[in-house]
Specification:
By secondary structure, the chain is α/β, with parallel strands linked by helices. Helix content is about 30%, strand content about 25%. The chain folds into five domains: about 5-105 and about 235-250, Rossmann fold (3-Layer(aba) Sandwich); about 110-230, 3-Layer(aba) Sandwich (Rossmann fold), CATH 3.40.50; about 260-360, Cobalt-precorrin-4 Transmethylase, domain 1 (3-Layer(aba) Sandwich), CATH 3.40.1010; about 365-465, Tetrapyrrole methylase, C-terminal domain (Methyltransferase, Cobalt-precorrin-4 Transmethylase, Domain 2, 2-Layer Sandwich); about 475-660, Rossmann fold (3-Layer(aba) Sandwich), CATH 3.40.50.150. Helix 6 (about 150) links the parallel strand 7 and strand 8 (about 155). The model has no long low-confidence stretch (mean pLDDT about 90).
Length: about 650
């Protein structure tokens, strides 16, 4: 390596050429850059290690190549002649040559492709409608053969004096000539196509780096037919990243670690006046902005590549397939930390090597309560936007509750639910369409809100002064609506629920639910979970529904039918209480274990025969018995001036769970 001159000759004309010149100079490698155009020269930053030199012709190229360690061909994919000269000169001088190739665009959609400009012009000469030409000034003369070309053809070229003069001599000037420098972005392409009332777009497949995709998406939106000049056949070459690795190995320097930066930014209410400076700066400095259409509207996206998408997997797939975008902002509604798509985005990008940052927006919570003039430090926060929760149970448990909602229908749904379960006196404030001219806040009880017309995007603040966070275990037997159906007594019921060890969001089966007394208490513990009360007796099913309404537990769902048959189509349970099995205990347990091998179960037995059957059924390799206890309850009754204890039948409680013994 000591005989290296530590220099390189670079034939540039693309974005890749500029990046390679920058990479080499930062590693103190002298690089001589030769470009074909004045515009190409202006894009190269000259410094102590980078100089410009015009090298023309195969012989001159071959002679100069002998002075360099390596020659790099980063000319444009359509610069066929120049690239051929570089290749021929390298062969003559026996120079080390690296050719940069740019991948073709994956999907050109519904387009018409021609091998060259003359064949495209021949086709267009037989058509009607305006033509938007973006192939550059060098081939523009061919379009003068189109009849009425001064009326039909509109050209976009580089903003250089000699280019404008050349186009003017061909008859392209005034409204038919647009001189400007890219990048253009989808929005600007779309605006220009509409401005010239284009029916056709003529372009080259310069790849994503050359803005090809922006032209295609703009053409699709404008209803313009793309005319694509096919890319010349490429000789073998390497990508920009591969070239940088080869140069790093040659000169014993570190290959650039270009971690692509991804910022997930919250737009708050979507009102431009409420955007944070950090979010505005992130979008301004990005070369790709992603988000749902409504999230993109607050920003000036002129010259930006835009992807209207909110699904995490589709976003990741697009980012992976488009490495030319190194600074990306994904805009999300509201606050990135509260029931946001940010959580899913972070999960798909985790461990993939991207530099991911998160910027919060002003949340609808803080915005709403600032408008109400209230603190929200003691408010329970939840969301019913795109998800389900037991709003009745939560309002009964929390004096102050906030929830995200969708539109009018979702607000009316929770009002009907609250009213049905006896919560008519709670007070509700409904915030609507924050950040828009239609923004407002309405107040009322559930029944009053039901009579209101509401907005498209809503939030609600619900006050219930009678709420209590005391979990109502041990409800008196006399409080339940009773029929002829059996009912697990209060003491056994409470102990069984405790032994189950339910969580806030547990999914529970109550098999042989009777009046639903155990279901009611389990639902009060698992307030954000779901209880499926399975009962074969129709009268008992009706009692379950009545008790669920009375106690405000809409998360109890009565299932009429015989277990285990009706269990098979229910969601996977985390817990199960078996109070009655109709002789099917073994098949019920097997079904539960099959649905969830780690399920936790409580089984009650009143008779010794049922207890024996329980012991037999749980004596398997995939069930672990934790304990079996006998509960003997006696209640005092008055007899004259005395209290006498009256014993109830003992009940056996068996606690077990799925698992390998």
């Amino acid at each position: 390596m000591n005989d290296l001159k530590r220099n390189a000759l670079l034939f540039a004309g693309t974005t890749e050429g500029r990046e390679l010149a920058d990479f080499l100079s930062k590693n103190e490698i002298e690089v001589t850059v030769s470009t074909a155009t004045e515009y190409g020269e202006s894009a190269i930053e000259v410094n102590d290690y980078v100089k410009l030199e015009s090298i023309r012709g195969v012989e001159e190229m071959a002679e100069r190549m002998k002075e360099f360690d390596v020659v790099i061909d980063a000319t444009h994919p359509y610069a066929v002649k120049k690239s051929a000269h570089v290749r021929e000169a390298a062969e003559k001088s026996n120079a080390r040559l690296i050719r940069i190739v740019r991948p073709n665009s994956d999907d050109t959609g519904n387009v018409i492709t021609f091998p060259d400009i003359p064949s495209a012009v021949e086709y267009l000469s037989k058509t009607e409608g305006n033509i938007f030409v973006t192939t550059g000034s060098n081939e523009l003369s061919a379009f003068t053969s189109i009849p009425d070309y001064k009326d039909r053809v509109f050209a976009r070229v580089l903003s250089l004096p000699n280019v404008a003069e050349k186009c003017s001599q061909l008859g392209f000037e005034g409204r038919n000539l647009m001189c400007m420098e890219g990048p253009y972005g989808e929005d600007l392409n779309l605006a220009m196509m509409k401005h010239v009332n284009a029916k056709y777009l003529v372009t080259k497949d310069s790849g994503s780096v050359g803005g090809f995709e922006d032209k295609m998406s703009a053409a699709a939106k404008a209803g313009v037919v793309p005319i694509i000049i096919g890319r010349p056949e490429e000789h073998e070459g390497v990508s920009l990243k591969e070239a940088e690795k080869m140069l790093a190995d040659l000169f014993s320097v570190n290959a650039p670690e270009k971690k692509r930066k991804i910022t997930i930014a919250g737009v708050g209410t979507g009102n431009p006046s409420n955007l944070t400076t950090a979010v505005i700066d992130s979008v301004r400095n990005s070369d790709l902005v992603i988000g749902a259409k409504r999230m993109l509207t607050p920003f000036d996206l002129t010259g930006k590549k835009i992807l209207e998408e909110y699904r995490a997997e589709e976003i990741f797939d697009y980012v992976e397939k488009n490495p030319q975008y190194g600074n990306i902002t994904m805009v999300m509604s509201g606050d990135t930390g509260y029931y946001s798509g940010t959580k899913k985005l972070l999960s798909v990008f985790e461990g993939t090597g991207y530099d991911v940052n998160v910027l919060p927006g002003i949340s609808s919570i803080s915005y709403f309560f600032s408008k109400l003039g209230e603190s929200w430090d003691d408010v329970y926060l939840t969301s019913l936007h795109g998800r389900e929760d037991n709003i009745v149970g939560l309002v009964k448990r929390h004096k102050r509750l906030f929830t995200l909602l969708r539109g009018e229908e979702s607000v009316h749904d929770i009002c009907r639910e609250l009213s049905y379960h006896g919560l008519d006196d709670v007070k509700i404030a409904v915030g609507q369409d924050f950040g828009s001219p239609e923004e407002r806040i309405d107040f009322g009880t559930p029944k009053e809100i039901l009579d209101m017309s509401l907005g498209r995007l809503c939030v609600a603040f619900i006050k219930n002064p009678d709420a209590t966070d005391v979990i109502p275990l041990g409800i008196s037997d006399d409080d339940f609506i009773r029929g002829t159906a059996p009912m697990t007594k209060s003491e056994v019921r409470s102990l069984s629920v405790v032994k189950l060890g339910l969580g806030n969001d547990s999914v529970v089966y109550d098999v042989g639910a009777g009046t639903g007394s155990v279901s009611i208490e389990m639902a009060s513990v698992a307030v954000s979970g779901q209880v499926y009360a399975v009962e074969r007796n129709k009268e008992a099913v009706d009692l379950i529904k009545q008790n669920s309404k009375k106690f405000g537990t809409p998360n109890v769902k009565a299932i009429e039918g015989l277990a285990p048959d009706v269990l098979k189509d229910l969601p996977v349970p985390t817990h199960a209480f078996i109070g009655g099995s109709s002789g099917n205990l073994e098949s019920i347990i097997n079904t539960l274990i099959e649905k969830n091998p780690e399920i936790r179960m409580v089984i009650t037995s009143v008779t010794l025969e049922t207890l024996a059957e329980t012991m037999r059924c749980i004596n398997g390799p995939n069930i672990i018995e934790e304990e079996t206890i006998c509960v003997n309850v006696s209640r005092a009754r008055h007899l004259g001036g005395y209290h006498l204890m009256t014993a109830h039948n003992p009940v056996y409680i068996t606690v077990c769970r799925g698992g390998v013994q």
